[in-house]
Amino acid sequence: MNLGGAIRAIISFLIFVVLHYTLRPLLGWRAPMDFLVLALLLASVRVRPASAAVIGFVLGLISDSLAPDALGAGALAMTAVGFGASYLKAVFFADNLVLNAFFFFLGKWVFDIIYFVAEQRVHGVELVQQLLLWSPLSAAVTAAVGVLLLFIMRPLLEPTPA
Amino acid sequence: MARAIRSNTRLDLIVLSACVVLALAARALPNTMRDPVATGMRRGFLAPLVMLQERSEKGRQSLLAADAKQAHLDSLSLASMRAGELEGENDRLRKLIGLGARVRTGFIPAEALHGRGIRDETTVILSAGSRAGVTRLSPVIAPEGLVGVVDQVDPTMSHAMLWTHPDFRVSAMSPDGTAFGIAQAHLTGATGGYLIELRGVPFRATLKPGALIVSSGWGGVWPRGIPVGTVLEEIKTTEGWARTYLLRPAVNPSDVYSVMILRRERLAKGLEGVWQSVAQADAAAQRVVVAGDSAARSAALAEAAARRAVIDSMARANGAPPLGAADSVRAVAPRPAPVRRPPPADTGRRDTTRRDTTRRDSVPPPDTIPLRPGVTR
User: Could you give the number of structural domains in chain A?
Assistant: First the structure.
């Protein structure tokens, strides 16, 4: 990745982070989209797994700092999702919107599973309901928004032709 | 090549392991250490993001509360639009309460319902009828003064002729009894309906502008002493043997909403002292308001007592008797010869309002006024 591509990727990453703290609270949906996971996935496919794990760890700490009771849970989940996304980028990150949507869906769902298990705030039926109902819904919304943003931000995200 | 790939993979796993361990360590932190870490991050490099999130959440709350706030604002606007009307109505009712306290008995409170026809300003419908004791020719009064007379009576309502009616007449006089006349609506001119003429005033009697005119009690319909209006000016007419004055009415017919209908038996007792002046009628209403506030009343009493104590102490310091002993001293001491002082510039109006001391000398009491033949009181 050349310098121009890196700058555009960083700008896209920052846009997703800002959207997470502006558009998401403004909408206030019960099954919200997760722009931080989208930012992590888009960054992870462009870097090595180690870097993706570090980016995920930092993003997780950022999200955990606003919910101190879950400090570390988000970092753990983001680390795992970032590393996995970077490791599997050759499989998933093809030029296919449906495959990208599934990639976003899976990333968000895995994040939620690790997060809620590590957080240990909800248990039993409530945890099952969260993981099998609300998390897939949130992952679906995240995937839809991710695909939409990929389409909108394609000039920023496309690799520079050689 | 294969060694480099294995080395990179090992590095990735090491970094991953380090991140996982750090995350688990953060998760295992006790609350006493977890909160400072999170707080430090929020107050540090995350402060802009936290601010963005707060503003977004406030924006969402504003959006959600917009409809409720708009409804609240509409309610407030509606209430504020009605506030002036309610204050005016409250003021009128307080005055009416003050008047009722002075009249004491023999009256029927009623609401005046204005019509929407051509004769709006000359007649009203009253919300009390014969079942409440209203009879034909019952006087209708307001806290400010004379309103009109009942001309038709139904069981539950009645119809009253306001003083603005062309057929309305009332015998009126100055409070000191020096000038008598017939008051009727001043019908000439564009605004004539809201002024009164006092016709037939003897040529020798002059009235100064601002003088109060009250009903004289002659005629048997209105008792003596109801304010009719105040003198504005003398107007020239073709009648050379009498004067005609233009009066500002005591009651504006468009402002009449709550009135009192006097019973016929109340007329025989007269309304002496009810209207010593329009200002005193207002003061009576004000007293009702003040009487309702015990705190204000007690404060006023305390202030009066303190003022009296100061005056007494000053009088003692000057060698004079205290205020409370003035009457006894005056009773013992020889009274100096009365000195007639020249009247001050504004005594004309003041004389006209202090009618309790002058009218009894100059005008016979209402019971002794001879009635015209055929007129029943």
Answer: 1
